Amino acid sequence: MSNNDQSAGSAESQPRSEAWKTALTVLQSAKPPSVPEGAEAMTVIVEFPPGDPGTPPHRHSGPAFGYMLEGEMLFELEGEPERVIKAGETFWEPGGDVIHYQDGNNRTDSRSRFLVTMMCAPGQPMLTLVDDEELARRRHLRAPRPGT
Description:
Blueprint: H1 3-8, E1 40-48, E2 58-60, E3 64-70, E4 72-77, E5 83-86, E6 90-93, E7 100-105, E8 112-120, E9 127-129, H2 132-137
Antiparallel strand pairs: 1-8, 2-9, 3-6, 3-8, 4-5, 4-7
Pfam families: Cupin_2
Protein name: Cupin domain-containing protein
InterPro entries: Cupin_2 (IPR013096), RmlC-like_jellyroll (IPR014710), RmlC_Cupin_sf (IPR011051)
């Protein structure tokens, strides 16, 4: 028997750790719309330089779940007031027909980085920009913004 064989042992002979019982911390829980058969998932890191306004108004074809890694994001979904998401906090959006207005860096002195797992409806792009005409038609669905 080689040294590797002696040290490997079987799973049953290894002492079991109890760490798994407290290793999980739930950061967010959401009830997204159903995911259609054939959907794809993509996990990405998005990084914006200081003060960058982020992605222009857009929508995702499916739900997106995110975690702020560094900095702060100014986040706004259609029908919800804008809010600041800080490092260590989570966010999610249902996707579909909901416009995502803002995801820009809320800080002018540091970058922002966030991780997002997005579900993409079959045959649809992951992200679609919203044009000015549609923004004007849906203006009534946007929550009041500070200072307006």
